[in-house]
Design goal:
single chain, mainly alpha, Four Helix Bundle (Hemerythrin (Met), subunit A), two-stranded antiparallel sheet, globular
Length: about 160
């Protein structure tokens, strides 16, 4: 989750508050809506379900909200949500990871919930990065200074 958060923060360095709320077309979400959606999804899956607290998610509002939050406020909300989710994951015991539960009408084990939340976070992180690259015609430099061609070896 930290890697996705890092990439989102780096992406958002390149957009204004106004650009954050713009939509490329009616069928696509703004970056801000994606950030709200990520907070909602992580809250529902990890904080509420795995953390065994009330599910207060208002999913439709994640996509219909058209402004009212700045980039700074959205990033703070995302970071607080991810930090809380990570604490819950770290504190979860084996029994809770194996327990089956219903989330959004689907049945998941605790492990399945974590896998879903992390995969979903990564998926939308890629969308945000793509949107910024498309908007600004820039390389976001996620791995500047690193040689990603190094081969694997045993430690």
């Amino acid at each position: 989750m930290d890697e996705s958060t890092r990439m989102i923060k780096k992406s958002l360095e390149n957009v204004s508050d106004e650009e954050l709320w713009s939509k490329p077309n009616a069928s696509l979400n703004s970056i801000a809506n994606l950030l709200l959606h990520l907070c909602g999804n992580i809250s529902q899956y990890v904080i509420s379900s795995l953390g065994e607290t009330e599910d207060k998610r208002e999913r439709d509002a994640e996509f219909t909200t058209g402004g009212g939050l700045t980039k700074k406020e959205l990033l703070q909300k995302l970071e607080e949500t991810v930090d809380m989710a990570k604490r819950i994951i770290y504190d979860t015991d084996t029994e809770q990871f194996l327990k089956k539960r219903q989330v959004q009408g689907f049945t998941f084990s605790g492990v399945g919930i974590v896998l879903h939340a992390v995969e979903h976070y990564s998926y939308h992180t890629g969308q945000i990065a793509f949107w910024v690259k498309q908007l600004k015609d820039i390389d976001l430099g996620f791995y500047d200074g690193m040689d990603l061609n190094i081969k694997n070896k045993d430690s």
